[in-house]
Amino acid sequence: MWDNKKRAEHHTDSEAFTILGKDVRFKGIVHFEGTVQLDSCFEGEIHAKGTIVIGENAVIRGTITAGTLITSGKIQGNVAASGKVQLLKPAVLIGDVQTPSFSMEEGVYFKGFTNMGAHPVVEEFPQSPMVLTDVTPQLNGSRPVLIESDRGN
Prior knowledge:
With 153 residues, the protein is mainly β. The chain has one domain (4-117). The chain is built from 2 helices and 13 strands; from the N terminus they run αβββββββββββββα. Strands 1, 2, 3, 4, 5, 6, 7, 8, 9, 10, 11, 12 and 13 form a 13-stranded parallel beta sheet that branches. The radius of gyration is 25 Å and the shape is globular. The protein starts with a helix and ends in a 30-residue tail after the last helix. The model is unreliable at 1-14 (pLDDT under 50).
């Protein structure tokens, strides 16, 4: 009925998948390899070499370092991903994000800064100071001025 032999043949260490359900609460520093799905409450540091999937019911307070982070849960803390960070509705992320690839669906709440690193094109610009041309001769003495007043209800 069940073909266990086929499953065993396709399962490798790189396909390891861990699930922590919504009834789990824990604190501390954790290290994962492979893919991890968190639907739980966690406080502390999460370090993962693979992918972390934060479920809609999850609440994370702390820092996350991962290859890829995909979340629809609530995170309060800084996130660093070597691959990408994907925020899915109805995710809440309050913290800074460091990643080369960042995406966010409509309906997500994000408060923080995003650093995607220097783009290769920007690094190719020569290191010479910018020179701005003087535009003052083009301006004449009179310029329109807009004055707003609260009077005149």
